C-alpha cells in the first residue's frame, strides 16, 4: 500500500483518518506517489481550531515583523527554487523549465507581500468638522481558506498565502487532491522563515472537505481557483454562509492573428500557449482566429510545429511537452478530438498518433482547422493540447466571434499595428489581454482574474486587490 499523505496542522504532520482515498501519481510514469485522504472532516475542524487559536498572536505581531517573514521566505524559496520545481514536475508532469517559471511567479507574490507595510497604510482626513477627524485602517479578517487546482501546485497557493498572512490572517490551504505534495514543502519553508506554527495549515481532501470549509462558521473568507462549475458552486455556497469569496474559474482563450503579425514570433508564442504544460493552463490559447491572409500561413506552420514537438518526461532536457494529469483526463481530451471530427472540423494534425512514451498519461498535440464558433471544441474548455483554428475576414468580426464565448479569462492579438492592438484591447471581453504575448499572465503587482464565467466575485487575486480581499476596513470618527 502507498504511503498516506499527512495533513500539516500547526506545522506537525497529522496522520489522516478517512473513508475515501485517492492516489497521487507521477503522471509521466504512472508511479503512485502516495494516498491522499478525501473526507477527513476531523482534520478540517482541527485545522480551523488551530488557525483560530493562532490568530490573536499573529494579528498582534507587528506588520514589520510579518513583512520580514516574507523577506526571509523569499530567500528560502529562491534557495529551494530548483527543488520545488522538481517537486512540481514530479506530481504534475509539466516540463522542468515550466515548473521553474511557475515557482518564480509564486516568488513574485512573496515580493509583493513583503511590501505590505506600504500597501496596508490607512487614510486620515482631518477637519471634516471643527475638531473632528476621520481615519480608516485595515484589519485582518481572521481565519481564511484557499482551495486550489491541480495545474499550478506552487504558484496558486502562493497567490493566496503571502497576502493573506502578511495582512494578519491565519490560513487553511486545501490543495488539489491530484497535486497535494508541493504545498507541504511550501509550508515547511514558511515555518523555517519564522511564521509561527498554526498560522498556515494544510488539509487534504476532495469536494466534501471543501464543502465543510465553505460552511464552517469560523472561516471568514474563501479564495478559490479551479474549474467553472466548481467556482460557481463555491461562490454561491460560501456566500450563502455569509463569507467573502473570490472564485476564479475555467477558460476558453481566443488568440487573434492579424495578417501583419510577425510570423516566427507568433508561431513560437502560439505553440507555447496552446501546447505548453500540455494545454493544462487557464491562460492556454485554445482557439486561434486567423484574420484574412493570416489563414494562408498559420495552419501549415502550426501543423509543422505540432508534428515536431518533443513529448516526454518533463525532466528530460529536450522535452517540450509533458503528460496530462490523469489517464481519465487524457481520455476526456481524446473524446473532444472525436467530437471535433464528428462536428465537421478538419483535423490537420492528430495528437493520438504522435510519438509518446508508453508509460504515463501522454497525448500528443492536435490541431483543427475550419472550426466554427458553435462547435463544442470552440466553446468548451478542453484543458488539453488541442488548438482550434477559425477564419474571419476582419478584426471586428474576429472580436465579435471571440466575445460570443461565455468565458473571458484572457485573449491575445498578434499584430504590428497599434491601431489594431488598441481596437482589440478596447473591445475584447477578457480580464487579461495580451498583445503579441502567448500567455498574458499579469505580474503579481496587478490583479489576476478573468471576466464573465471565468470569475465569480469582485476583488481579484494578487495586486492591491488581494490586500483589500483579506482585510476589513474600519473607519473611526473622532472629536477631541
Ligand atoms: P477542479 O475544479 O476540479 O478542482 C479545484 C479544487 O476544487 C480542488 O481543490 C478540488 O478538490 C475542489 N473540487 C473539485 N470538485 C469539487 C466540488 N464538486 N465541490 C467542491 N470542491 C470541489 O479544477 P482542476 O481540474 O483541479 O483545475 C483545472 C481548472 O482550473 C480548469 O478549469 C482551469 O481553467 C481552472 N483554473 C483557473 C485559473 C484562473 O486563474 N481562472 C487558474 C488555474 C486553473
TrEMBL record:
GO terms for biological process: L-valine catabolic process; thymine catabolic process. InterPro entries: Ald_DH/histidinol_DH, Ald_DH_C, Ald_DH_CS_CYS, Ald_DH_N, Aldehyde_DH_dom, MeMal-semiAld_DH. The keyword Oxidoreductase applies. It is an enzyme of class 1 (oxidoreductase). It comes from the Bacteria. Its EC number is 1.2.1.27. The keyword Mitochondrion does not apply. It holds the Pfam family Aldedh. SUPFAM superfamilies: ALDH-like. Residues 22-474 form the Aldehyde dehydrogenase domain. CDD domains: ALDH_F6_MMSDH (cd07085). GO terms for molecular function: methylmalonate-semialdehyde dehydrogenase (acylating, NAD) activity. Keywords: NAD, Oxidoreductase. This is methylmalonate-semialdehyde dehydrogenase (CoA acylating).
Amino acid at each position: 500500500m502507498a504511503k498516506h499523505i499527512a495533513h500539516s496542522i500547526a506545522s506537525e504532520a497529522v496522520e489522516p483518518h478517512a473513508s475515501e482515498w485517492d492516489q497521487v501519481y507521477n503522471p509521466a510514469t504512472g508511479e503512485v506517489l502516495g494516498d491522499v485522504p478525501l473526507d477527513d472532516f476531523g482534520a478540517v475542524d482541527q485545522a480551523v481550531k488551530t488557525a483560530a487559536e493562532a490568530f490573536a498572536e499573529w494579528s498582534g505581531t507587528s506588520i514589520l515583523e510579518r513583512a520580514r517573514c516574507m523577506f526571509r521566505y523569499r530567500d528560502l524559496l529562491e534557495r529551494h527554487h530548483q527543488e520545488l520545481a522538481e517537486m512540481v514536475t514530479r506530481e504534475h508532469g509539466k516540463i522542468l523549465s515550466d515548473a521553474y517559471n511557475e515557482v518564480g511567479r509564486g516568488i513574485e507574490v512573496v515580493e509583493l507581500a513583503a511590501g505590505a507595510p506600504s500597501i496596508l497604510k490607512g487614510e486620515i482626513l482631518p477637519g471634516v468638522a471643527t475638531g473632528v477627524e476621520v481615519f480608516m485602517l485595515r484589519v485582518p479578517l481572521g481565519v481564511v481558506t484557499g482551495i486550489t487546482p491541480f495545474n499550478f501546485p506552487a504558484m496558486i497557493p502562493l497567490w493566496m498565502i503571502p497576502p493573506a498572512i502578511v495582512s494578519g490572517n491565519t490560513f487553511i490551504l486545501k490543495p488539489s487532491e491530484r497535486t497535494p505534495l508541493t504545498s507541504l514543502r511550501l509550508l515547511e519553508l514558511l515555518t523555517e522563515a519564522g511564521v509561527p506554527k498554526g498560522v498556515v495549515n494544510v488539509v487534504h481532501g476532495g469536494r466534501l472537505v471543501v464543502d465543510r470549509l465553505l460552511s464552517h462558521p469560523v472561516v471568514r473568507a474563501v479564495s478559490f481557483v479551479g474549474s467553472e462549475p466548481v467556482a460557481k458552486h463555491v461562490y454561491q455556497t460560501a456566500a450563502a454562509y455569509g463569507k467573502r469569496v473570490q472564485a476564479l474559474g475555467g477558460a476558453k482563450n481566443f488568440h487573434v492573428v492579424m495578417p501583419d503579425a510577425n510570423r516566427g514570433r507568433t508561431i513560437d508564442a502560439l505553440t507555447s500557449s496552446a501546447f505548453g504544460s500540455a494545454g493544462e493552463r487557464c491562460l492556454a490559447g485554445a482557439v486561434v482566429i486567423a484574420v484574412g491572409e493570416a489563414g494562408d500561413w498559420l495552419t501549415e506552420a502550426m501543423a509543422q510545429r505540432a508534428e515536431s514537438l518533443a513529448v516526454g518526461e518533463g525532466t528530460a532536457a529536450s522535452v517540450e511537452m509533458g503528460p496530462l494529469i490523469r489517464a481519465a483526463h487524457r481520455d476526456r481530451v481524446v473524446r473532444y478530438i472525436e467530437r471535433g471530427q464528428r462536428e465537421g472540423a478538419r483535423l490537420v494534425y492528430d495528437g493520438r498518433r504522435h510519438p509518446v512514451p508508453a508509460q504515463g498519461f501522454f497525448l500528443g498535440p492536435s490541431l483543427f482547422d475550419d472550426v466554427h464558433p458553435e462547435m463544442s471544441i470552440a466553446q468548451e474548455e478542453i484543458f488539453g493540447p488541442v488548438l482550434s483554428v477559425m477564419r474571419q475576414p476582419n478584426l471586428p468580426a474576429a472580436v465579435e466571434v471571440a466575445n460570443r464565448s461565455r468565458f473571458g479569462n484572457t485573449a491575445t492579438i498578434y499584430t504590428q499595428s497599434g491601431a489594431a492592438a488598441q481596437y482589440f484591447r478596447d473591445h475584447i471581453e477578457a480580464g487579461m489581454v495580451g498583445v503579441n504575448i502567448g500567455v498574458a499572465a499579469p505580474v503579481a503587482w496587478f490583479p489576476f482574474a478573468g471576466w464573465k464565467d471565468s470569475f465569480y466575485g469582485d476583488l481579484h487575486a494578487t495586486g492591491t486587490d488581494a490586500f483589500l480581499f483579506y482585510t476589513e476596513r474600519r473607519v473611526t470618527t473622532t472629536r477631541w
